[in-house]
Amino acid sequence: MALARVVTFDGVSKDRMDGMDREMREGQPPEGFPSSELVVLHDPEAEKSLVIVFFDSEDDYRKGDEILSAMPAGDTPGQRTSVTKYNVATRMSS
After folding, report:
1. pTM (whole model) above 0.85
2. Which of 31, 40, 44, 78 is geometrically suited to a Cys-Cys bond with 11, CB 3.0 to 4.6 A?
3. What are phi and psi of 3, to 5 degrees?
4. Predicted confidence pLDDT, tens digits, the chain (94 residues)
5. What domains lie within the chain, and their CATH numbers?
């Protein structure tokens, strides 16, 4: 079963989000990070962001969560306000 790690951030400016986008597109995932899909949503007016990382298994989620939780605060888009684990009930793309 797929799992999602959903993280909310406050204090995320448009400039910071643009910089994070460039860094993520040009960089590599952290060493040992399992294969995953990433979706980042941003509300520039409220300076809030929602980051969703999809993992294929519980083991991948655990590894990914450990790596992401250990990242320095300066590597995140803003102030992390919550981290929640969800089962992915339905996933579609067209």
Report:
1. yes
2. 78
3. -130, 155
4. 899 999 999 999 999 999 988 988 898 888 899 988 999 999 999 999 999 999 999 999 999 999 999 988 777 788 999 999 999 999 888 8
5. 3-85 (3.30.70)
